[in-house]
Amino acid sequence: xxxxxxxxxxxYKKLRSHLEAMESDIVGQRLDKYKLVSLIDNALDILRVxxxxxxxxxxxxxxxxMNAGYSQGIDKWKDPDxxxxxxxxxxxxxQRTYSFSKEGFDELVNRIxxxxxxxxxxxxxxxxxxxxxxxxEYTGPGKGKTERDYLGKPDEVEAFSYNxxxxxxxxxxxxxxxxxxRIGDLSILKDSINFVAYLASFEDTDNKxxxxxxxxxLKYVEHLD
Length: 225
Fold this sequence. Notes:
Strand content: 5-15%
Largest sheet: 3 strands, mixed
Distance between the termini: 25 Å
Strand order of the largest sheet: 2-4-3
Shape: globular
Helix content: 40-55%
């Protein structure tokens, strides 16, 4: 039997609640992107997430991309004015305003929640190590062995298993997922874009990294609502 522990997501319900509270200010509105940044910043400030933005030509019109990060060094300083978790919103540099439907808003909330949740898993991992040892460092997209080495690091396996569980729970109820795992029907995992990315990198599930990933996904499905 495989015993598999997971790092508990930090304030998962609270994070979702604060993000979802923005709905009336965003849905059906055409917002200046700087107003949108301000709304998200206000929603996440209580959770000690620093929000900033970048205008870039690499983001297509009408799309918003984002990056999130966790700094173990800042966490170690314990400065109340310095937040160890950051969210950077990436906008098209020639577009000023954005419109949101209910579906578009839900997608925005999901993406922010997944990005922050991933970094909060890393924060939990670092704190388990008493902030003494650095975890995995993201050095940019890679291919082949470089990508597998990064995705195969224990910290990333755990953080991405959280993301995959979250994606699955948005498509299926918990019991459906657990039953699929119980009977060995792993096709349900293909409803997660992050799992598909792992499968593309590792080619099949018959290896140590993918087995560990799958076991941790199940644990997070059991932990999350």
